[in-house]
Design a protein that fits this description.
heterodimer, A: 317 residues, alpha+beta, Alpha-Beta Plaits, 2 domains, two-stranded antiparallel ribbon, 11 helices, B: 456 residues, mainly alpha, 0% strand
C-alpha cells in the first residue's frame, strides 16, 4: 500500500500548490488504517461528525470519509526520558556498500519524508567524493556516524544530545538550548539547526514529541539522523535502508554479528573481512558505528546527475 | 596635625584637593556633547534590541546569514572579542600593581570599568546567539561539567564577580567623598552613594580591610583572567576542526587579548582626558608608557601568530591547506593581511618613533588595533567553519560563504553601545580616576587622604 502511495505522491509533488495538501493525504493514507473492511466496520460503530476528509484506499482511489471514522495507526512513542536508555542488548551498526550506490537518492527522499523534514535540513546526504584529481569519483551516502566516542556529546553543555547503550546518539529538542557547539564539534557535518519555525505537517502537530522520532521539530534546536530507533524498536529497518533500490545500506546488530539490507542477511565480521570495510575519517578517533565498503567492482558506472537536485535548490534559493 | 605638615606635603595636598574637585566636575554636570553621546548610544542600543526582537520572531534564514555550515557568526566572534577585552582589568590593574609599576594608578579604574562592561556584555553576546535563550537556566539545572561551555560560564561568572569587586572596593573611599561634595543631585543618587559607601569612615581598620581585599583580588584576578580567555579559546580548540586544532590556542588568545586591552585603555584614556579635561592627571607620559607596552605586546602576539600559521603552513597537510591558502592568497586574504598589518605590524613598529607616542597618533594606532582585533576574531571563527572535512555540496550558494546580515550587525552594534553606555554612565556617577590611589602612590599618608574626603 505504501509503495503505491509513494508513487502517486511523487507524481503529484510536481504540482507545487497541491504538494502540501497531498502530502497530508499521503501520510493519512499511509499512517491511518482505512482499508475497506476496516472502514465498513468503522461506519457501523462511530457517530458521524459531518466533517469530511479525503483518504486514499489501497486501490489508489480517493474517497471521502467522515473524520469520526478515522483511527490513527498505532505509533510507538517513547518519552524523552525513556529515549535516553538504549534498546536492551543491542549495538546497532550500519554498513554502506559504496560499490552499489548510483545516486538514486531514494534513501534521502524517504528519510526526509518520514521524518517530516520540510525545510532545508537534510539528514542523510549523498556526496560526490573524489580524493584527488587522478582517483575515481564515487557516490557516498552519509548518515550520522553514531560515533562510539561522539565529539558532539562531549561538548553538549546540557546533555541534550546523548549516547545510548545501543550505540545510538540522539538529540532531545526539549532540552537543547541551541548553542550549536555540537555542530561545530561534529567532524562529519551531520547536524542541522532549525533556523526557522518548522513547517509542521498537520499530523505531526498534535503528536507527542519523542527524540526517537525527531518530530515535531522545534525552532532553535539541533536535529540529525537518528538511525530510526522507533522502527528498530518495532523490528523494522530504518527508512533509508528500506527505500534503497540497490541494497546499499545494511543495518544490523553488532552483538548478533548480523547485518541486513532487506534482501540479504550477512555476517557483519565476515562482510568486513571480505570486502575490506572501513570507517570514515577513523583517524579522528570518533569510532563511528557506520562502516563503509569501498567502491570497487561497482554495479553502476559513475554518472553525474541530470538536474536531479534542481527542485531542492530552487526551493532553497 | 597642621604643625606636622611639611611644605612638600601641603603642595601635594593642594594638588589632590584640586584634583578631587575637578574629578567631580563630570559627575556634577553633563554638557551638551555628553548628552548627545548618551542619547546616541541609547538609540543604537534600542535599535539592537529591536533587531534582536526581529531575529527571534522571524525566520532566521531571512534575518541572519548563519546556516548549517557557518553556524557561528559574528555573535560568537564578537563574544570572543569582548572576553579578550575584559582581560584588560587583569593586566592593567593587577599585573602592573603586583609588579610595582606605579604608573598604573590613575589608569586602573578606566581599565576596570572597561573590563566589567566587556565581560558583562560578552555574556549578553552569547545569549543572543542561542537558539533558545529562555532555556539558559538549563545550564544550571542540567549542566554537564564535561562541556567546555560550562567551564566558560563558570569562569566568566567568577571573573565578572571578581572584576566587579575589584572595581567597587577601591571605589568605597571615593564614594563617601561624593556624598559630601556633590550638590543639587536627586535624592536617590545621594541615597545610592550613602548605601554604596558602606558607612566608610576611613578608620585604620577599614583601610586595612580595603587594602587587603584589593591585594587578594589583584592576585586572584590574574589566574581568573587567564582562565576565561584560555577556556574561550578551548571552545574552538576542543573541537576536531583542523583550523582550530591547536595547542597554541590558549596562549595565542591571551597574547591577543593583552594587546587589545592596552589599545582599549589608550582609547579610553584619550577620550576621558579630552572630554573631561583631565590633561593634568592623564598626562602625555602615560601614553608614552602605554605605547611602549603596545610594542612589546605586539611582539609577543606576533610570536604566537607565527606559531599558529607558519608551522601548519610549512607542513601544508591536506586538512589545513585549503584553509591556509584561502587566508594567505585566496578569498580571505585581504582581510587576513589587513588584520596582520593593523593588528600587529602597525602597533609593533610605529610607536618606536617618539612622535607616535603622543596622545593623538597613539590613539589612532590604538583604534586601528581595536578594529583589527575585532576582525582577527572574525577570521579565527568564520573561515574555521567553512572548511569541513567533508565537502559542502547540494546546498544553496549562500551557504558556502558567510557575510553577516544587517540584523546581526545591528545586534552587535547594540551590544557595543550598551557596553559604552555602561562605561559612560559609570563615569557620570563615579570618579573615573581613583584619587586616593594616586595620592597614595605619591606617598601621601592615609590620614591626609581621609582629610580630603571630610573637607566639604
Amino acid at each position: 500500500m505504501s509503495q503505491k502511495t509513494e508513487e502517486n505522491n511523487e507524481k503529484k509533488t510536481r504540482e507545487d500548490n497541491s504538494r502540501r495538501d497531498f502530502l497530508k493525504l499521503g501520510v493519512f493514507a499511509a499512517g491511518l488504517t482505512v482499508a475497506g473492511a476496516g472502514l465498513q466496520k468503522a461506519f457501523s460503530e462511530e457517530k458521524e461528525t459531518g466533517e469530511k476528509v479525503k483518504v486514499l484506499t489501497t486501490e489508489g482511489k480517493v474517497v471521502e470519509v467522515d473524520t469520526a471514522h478515522i483511527k490513527k495507526a498505532e505509533v510507538c512513542c517513547v518519552s524523552p526520558k525513556e529515549s535516553r536508555e538504549g534498546i536492551p542488548n543491542k549495538k546497532w551498526v550500519m554498513v554502506i556498500d559504496l560499490s552499489r550506490c548510483k545516486h538514486a537518492l531514494k534513501c534521502q527522499h524517504s528519510c526526509q519524508k518520514y521524518h517530516h523534514l520540510s525545510g532545508m535540513n537534510v539528514w542523510l546526504k549523498v556526496f560526490k567524493m573524489q580524493e584527488s584529481e587522478n582517483t575515481a569519483p564515487y557516490w557516498m551516502p552519509k548518515p550520522c556516524m553514531h560515533c562510539d566516542r561522539p565529539p558532539c556529546v562531549k561538548v553538549c553543555p546540557v546533555s541534550a544530545t546523548y549516547k545510548r547503550s545501543d550505540g545510538i546518539v540522539l538529540v532531545d529538542n526539549e532540552r537543547c538550548v541551541g548553542c550549536r557547539f555540537c555542530m561545530a564539534a561534529c567532524p562529519y557535518s551531520t547536524r542541522s539547526f532549525n533556523w526557522e519555525e518548522p513547517e509542521l505537517l498537520s499530523e505531526t502537530t498534535g503528536e507527542t514529541y519523542s527524540p526517537e522520532r525527531g518530530f515535531p521539530q522545534k525552532r532553535g534546536t539541533v536535529e540529525k539522523c537518528d538511525f530510526c530507533p522507533d522502527l528498530l524498536r518495532q523490528g523494522k529497518l530504518p527508512h533509508c535502508v528500506a527505500a534503497c533500490p540497490n541494497g546499499v545500506f545494511y543495518m544490523g546488530d553488532m552483538t548478533e554479528d548480523t547485518v541486513t539490507n532487506g534482501d540479504e542477511t550477512l555476517r557483519f565480521s565476515q562482510l568486513m573481512k571480505d570486502k575490506s570495510g572501513y570507517r570514515l575519517n577513523d583517524i579522528l578517533g570518533t569510532h563511528p558505528s557506520v562502516y563503509y565498503l569501498p567502491p570497487v567492482n561497482r554495479l553502476f558506472p559513475f554518472k553525474e546527475p541530470v538536474a536531479e537536485n534542481s527542485d531542492k535548490e530552487k526551493k532553497a534559493e | 596635625m597642621k604643625n606636622e605638615t611639611t611644605a612638600v606635603d601641603s603642595v601635594l595636598m593642594n594638588k589632590y584637593e584640586a584634583m578631587h574637585d575637578e574629578l567631580l566636575r563630570p559627575i556634577q554636570k553633563t554638557g551638551l556633547a555628553g548628552k548627545i553621546w548618551i542619547g546616541f548610544l541609547f538609540c543604537v542600543f534600542f535599535a539592537g534590541v529591536f533587531a534582536f526582537y526581529t531575529q527571534e520572531t522571524k525566520s532566521k534564514y531571512e534575518t541572519i546569514s548563519l546556516n548549517n555550515y557557518t553556524m557561528w557568526g559574528i555573535y560568537i566572534s564578537n563574544f570572543v572579542f569582548f572576553v579578550a577585552l575584559s582581560l584588560v582589568g587583569a593586566l592593567m590593574s593587577a599585573v602592573l600593581k603586583l609588579t610595582n609599576f606605579e604608573w598604573y594608578r590613575p589608569l586602573s579604574r578606566i581599565a576596570e570599568v572597561i573590563a566589567v562592561a566587556a565581560i558583562m556584555f560578552a555574556g549578553v553576546g552569547i545569549i543572543v546567539a542561542m537558539g533558545h535563550p529562555e532555556r539558559l537556566y538549563f545550564l544550571l539545572t542540567h549542566g554537564r561539567l564535561q562541556s567546555p561551555i560550562i567551564w566558560d560560564i563558570v569562569v566568566i561568572i567568577t571573573y565578572f564577580v571578581a572584576t566587579s569587586l575589584f572595581l567597587f572596593i577601591p571605589l568605597i573611599p571615593g564614594i563617601s567623598q561624593l556624598s559630601n561634595h556633590l550638590k543639587d543631585k536627586p535624592k536617590w543618587q545621594m541615597w545610592m552613594y550613602k548605601k554604596l559607601s558602606l558607612s566608610w569612615r576611613g578608620t585604620p581598620e577599614q583601610w586595612k580591610i580595603v587594602k587587603r581585599c584589593i591585594t587578594i583580588l589583584a592576585i586572584l584576578i590574574i589566574p581568573l583572567g587567564i582562565s576565561i580567555h584560555t577556556v574561550t579559546a578551548w571552545l574552538f580548540a576542543s573541537t576536531l576542526r583542523a583550523e582550530w586544532n591547536s595547542t597554541n590556542f590558549g596562549a595565542y588568545f591571551i597574547a591577543g587579548a593583552f594587546l587589545l586591552g592596552v589599545a582599549a585603555v589608550i582609547v579610553g584614556t584619550f577620550f576621558f582626558r579630552k572630554y573631561y579635561r583631565f590633561e593634568k592627571y592623564l598626562t602625555d607620559s602615560y601614553f608614552d608608557k602605554m605605547g611602549k607596552m603596545l610594542v612589546f605586546l605586539s611582539g609577543v602576539y606576533f610570536y604566537f601568530n607565527i606559531n599558529e600559521y607558519l608551522v601548519p603552513a610549512f607542513k601544508m597537510d591536506s586538512m589545513h591547506s585549503q584553509y591556509l591558502l584561502d587566508e594567505f592568497t585566496g578569498k580571505d586574504a585581504i582581510l587576513f593581511w589587513l588584520v596582520f598589518l593593523f593588528g600587529i605590524f602597525v602597533p609593533a613598529i610605529l610607536p618606536l618613533f617618539k612622535s607616535m607616542l603622543k596622545p593623538w597618533p597613539l590613539t589612532v594606532i590604538a583604534i586601528l588595533v581595536v578594529i583589527a582585533a575585532w576582525f582577527k576574531r572574525y577570521i579565527i571563527v568564520i573561515p574555521g567553519l567553512s572548511h569541513p572535512y567533508l565537502p559542502i555540496q547540494n546546498v544553496p550558494h549562500s551557504w558556502t560563504h558567510y557575510v553577516p546580515s544587517l540584523i546581526e550587525c545591528m545586534v552587535v552594534a547594540g551590544i557595543f553601545a550598551a557596553a559604552l553606555l555602561f562605561i559612560t554612565l559609570f563615569s557620570k556617577f563615579f570618579p573615573i580616576i581613583s584619587v586616593w590611589e594616586v595620592a597614595e602612590g605619591d606617598g601621601v599618608s592615609l590620614e591626609k587622604i581621609n582629610l580630603l574626603s571630610k573637607k566639604a
